[in-house]
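In this supplementary section we document a worked example of the pipeline. Step one takes a protein sequence of length 238 as its only input; no multiple sequence alignment statistics are reported here. Step two produces a three-dimensional model, which step three serialises into structure tokens for compact storage. The input and output of this example are shown verbatim.
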Amino acid sequence: MNLTSISEYLAGSAFSNGLRVQISGAESMIPYRMEVIERIVEKKDIIHFGCADHIEIIEAKIAKNIWFHKRLLSCANKCIGIDNNKSAVDFLKSKLSIPDLYCLNIDKEEIPSEITGRHYEFLILGEIIEHVDNPVMFLNTVHNKFKNHADRIIITTPNAFRWNNFKNAFKQVEIINSDHRYWFTPYTLSKVLYQAGYNEIDFQLVENFRPEKSSILKNSLFCRFPSFRDTILIQAKF
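The serialised model returned by step three reads:
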């Protein structure tokens, strides 16, 4: 879906204190984050930001085929990995021989010429934006540094409307990663991207992982009401 019809609100040229935004409709199946992105970037040249993970769980994730960077390496034509966790990048290089990895702080460091020397169809920022102090400034920095080197950006982030949030609210608790700064909705994330310089914004609501055991009740709920799914997957053009 996209919010082209209300682009004046994203741009800030129009205002409403009660804007009604259609964010989903009933669907016949549930899409899953990694599988959706794999289909999008198959045989493409891509950069994966935040490609590492906690060192202690990387090998276990690889064994379960849920370490995303390895899956991207398997389907993309060229996959560059960037992360600011030096110990994790060193581990991936030395212990697992993962190629084309760079330890970089995008906010503060220049992009090496061996990265900018080619063009990329997609930049992928998975589960990063909710950890950033100033999302508009961060995404604008990415835009300025890669606008001549990439076509589109893909972002995934937890959905503020996810079903577990409603269940926890009935228990009068919030359960959250303590490093998160924000919960996003499709509209607020679209507005952040628009303000950071991106356009042609499209989003869909997905589930993060395919469950080992399927639930008929949950499948029915998430097909009828996609807005309860746990993850926003959004694309935008540089």
